[in-house]
Specification:
- By secondary structure, this protein is mainly α.
- It has one domain: MetI-like (MetI-like fold, Orthogonal Bundle), CATH 1.10.3720.
- 83% of the residues lie in helices and 0% in strands.
- The chain contains eleven helices and no strands.
- Helix 9 packs antiparallel against helix 10.
Length: 259
């Protein structure tokens, strides 16, 4: 119990220090673009009502989840194939290196030409940026599977989908989840950027509207909402990761205790 309490205190220490520093630095601010934190917090409940959460936060979250899920399925599937076959990897590697070097925000105007300006465009933008960390980490995770274990599985007649399900994906799991974690933060960024182009709702659209109407405290509340959303999604992701990779975290803990 004491260790859990200590971890919670350590996790909250830095946010508390940053909030206190922000409060102190902005307390006497007369700059309209840098309002005091107390003003922002006072404005927050008036702006982000239940209706606005339904009309702006929920659509943003659904787009993010759709794009993220699309990237996860495509990245893991393609990464598994590319990582499993050396010739496929050699054939695809130059194209992958080129495509991943292109910043996803640059593709927004191009994607708009093909996908329009609706939700499909925003989902494609999110997926196009999220897929690369997942794909590349999956390739490296599959390549790193112990060849002795692969030969053992083959000798026992475990091949095809059974080998993929019981050996390859579990062995590559930690690296796959590392890519999924990286993609989550990228997805939030692209969600906001995509909603700044020809949108009628969403957190990114709302923040821009506040900025254009010079409702600066309201704009800052939108930034706080994005930070809180990222934090909550990170917590949910960590819980899911610990559940799926319970064997991995247990093995690491046992290794630490033995050493």
């Amino acid at each position: 119990m004491g260790r859990v309490l200590l971890k919670v205190l350590l996790a909250l220490a830095l946010p508390a220090v940053l909030v206190a520093a922000w409060w102190a630095a902005s307390s006497g601010s007369a700059n309209p673009y840098w309002p005091p934190l107390r003003t922002i917090l006072k404005t927050f409940p008036d702006v982000w009502t239940g209706e606005r959460l339904r009309s702006d936060v929920l659509p943003s979250l659904l787009r993010l989840l759709a794009g993220y899920a699309t990237a996860a399925v495509a990245g893991i599937a393609l990464g598994t194939v590319i990582g499993s076959y050396r010739r496929v990897r050699a054939f695809c590697e130059p194209v992958l290196e080129f495509l991943r070097a292109v910043p996803p925000p640059v593709l927004v105007p191009v994607i708009m030409l093909f996908a329009g300006i609706g939700d499909a465009m925003k989902v494609v933008v999110i997926a196009s940026g999220c897929v690369w960390p997942i794909l590349l980490n999956t390739v490296e995770g599959v390549r790193a599977v112990d060849p002795v274990m692969l030969e053992t599985a083959r000798s026992y007649g475990i091949t095809g989908a059974a080998r993929l399900r019981t050996l390859v994906l579990p062995s590559a799991g930690p690296q796959i989840f590392a890519g999924l974690r990286q993609s989550l933060s990228i997805g939030i960024i692209l969600m906001v950027i995509s909603e700044m182009f020809a949108a009628s709702d969403g957190i990114g659209f709302t923040v821009v509207q506040f900025q254009r109407s010079f409702a600066i405290p309201d704009m800052w509340t939108g930034i706080l909402v994005l930070g809180l959303l990222g934090f909550l999604l990170s917590v949910v992701f960590q819980l899911a990761e610990r559940r799926v990779l319970a064997w991995y975290h247990g093995l690491r803990a046992a290794t630490r205790r033995s050493s």
